[in-house]
Amino acid sequence: MNEGVQKNTLYVGGLAEEVNEQILHAAFIPFGDIKDVKTPLDQATQKHRSFGFVTFLEREDAASAMDNMDGAELYGRVLTVNYALPEKIKGGEQGWAAKPIWEDADTWFERQQQEKEMLRLQAEQRAAMEAAEDLHRKKMAEEREGEKDDADAKDDPMTKAEAEVLNQTA
């Protein structure tokens, strides 16, 4: 299984509105000693969010409860029971659940500055590459022009030798 899975804690989904922590505890106690039962509340309605967590003292008890209760009915609703994943802190650089949102402001501003600097350096590098390419094109064009001028010059010994060879074969 995944390393992050908590083998003592079960996720119980599909809970009916009538189910509270005491009822959930009573439904799972036949499988072993329970350490904790939680049903997270919706902040707006103050009712549970149709799921809960049951933490057993022993892993074997949790496994037995999962095997027996997954797909079982409780208050007319079919339960989904799996091993619970560890809580993840969401938001911000490091997470906002345990600290104020402005705590990450400095790292956010630093990252924004670094990104701006990176874009500036990339633009400079692109401009330097374009300037080097333009310079190279100009030199190549000058060399080609220089070759044409040399070929047109009658005093050039190579041009004279080529002309003599052409005249002899004609």
Automatic annotation (TrEMBL):
Residues 133-147, 154-163 have a biased composition (Basic and acidic residues). Keywords: RNA-binding. InterPro entries: PPIE_RRM, RRM_dom. Residues 127-170 are annotated as: Disordered. Transmembrane segments: none annotated. GO terms for molecular function: RNA binding. It comes from the Eukaryota. It holds the Pfam family RRM_1. The keyword RNA-binding applies. CDD domains: RRM_PPIE (cd12347). Residues 8-86 form the RRM domain. PANTHER family: ATPASE E1, RRM DOMAIN-CONTAINING PROTEIN. This is RRM domain-containing protein. It comes from Salvia splendens (Scarlet sage).
